[in-house]
Write a structure and sequence with these properties.
Keywords: DNA-binding, Phosphoprotein, Transcription, Transcription regulation, Two-component regulatory system
Largest sheet: 6 strands, parallel
Oligomer: single chain
Pfam family, one: Response_reg
Shape: globular
CATH class: Alpha Beta
CATH architecture: 3-Layer(aba) Sandwich
CATH topology: Rossmann fold
Number of helices: 6
Number of domains: 1
Radius of gyration: 15 Å
Helix content: 40-55%
Strand order of the largest sheet: 2-1-3-4-5-6
Distance between the termini: 38 Å
InterPro entries: CheY-like_superfamily (IPR011006), NreC/VraR/RcsB-like_REC (IPR058245), Sig_transdc_resp-reg_receiver (IPR001789), WalR-like (IPR039420)
Order of helices and strands: EHEHEHEHEHEH
CATH superfamily: Response regulator
Structural class: alpha/beta
Strand content: 15-25%
Protein name: Response regulatory domain-containing protein
């Protein structure tokens, strides 16, 4: 499942993934609202979400990552031009298991998504080391408070 408000990006993602053969794209959504409806209907294993679209963003990631019901939740991956460490950290805390900067993944997208589907966490943004440091520092501070 892929969600982006740009139809050209949606089509490109679909074409790249389906050409790879390891993926079946069960739906394309142009908004976060459409993404939730399609996710409920198709119960995909993996959801690729643009952060800048109506009904999307971090709240859209959180909504997909915490869908109620007797189902296996999909692995949620953010695909965004927004790479500020604060946005990446917030998105990961909302339930994303991957964060990919638009324009950096290109033809390697299927390999990265296959790693995520297999259980890896991938943070492919220029600020990844800052994001990881922030997450570790925050986690250490939370553990010390307990």
């Amino acid at each position: 499942m892929a969600a982006d408000d740009d139809a050209t990006v949606r089509a490109a993602v679909r074409d790249v993934l389906e050409a790879d053969g390891r993926f079946e794209v069960v739906g394309l959504a142009g908004s976060g609202y459409e993404l939730l409806a399609l996710t409920n209907r198709h119960e995909p294993d993996l959801v690729l979400v643009d952060l800048r679209m109506e009904g999307g963003g971090v709240d859209g990631v959180r909504a997909v990552a915490t869908l109620p019901g007797p189902r296996t939740l999909p692995a949620v991956v953010a695909l965004s031009a927004q790479t500020a460490p604060s946005v990446v950290v917030e998105t990961l805390r909302a339930g994303a298991v991957g964060y990919l900067a638009k324009g950096r993944s290109g033809s390697g997208l299927p390999d990265v998504l296959a790693r995520i589907a297999a259980g890896d966490v991938v943070i492919a943004v220029p600020s990844a080391s800052t994001v990881l440091a922030h997450l570790l520092i925050t986690r250490t501070a939370e553990s010390a408070a307990d």
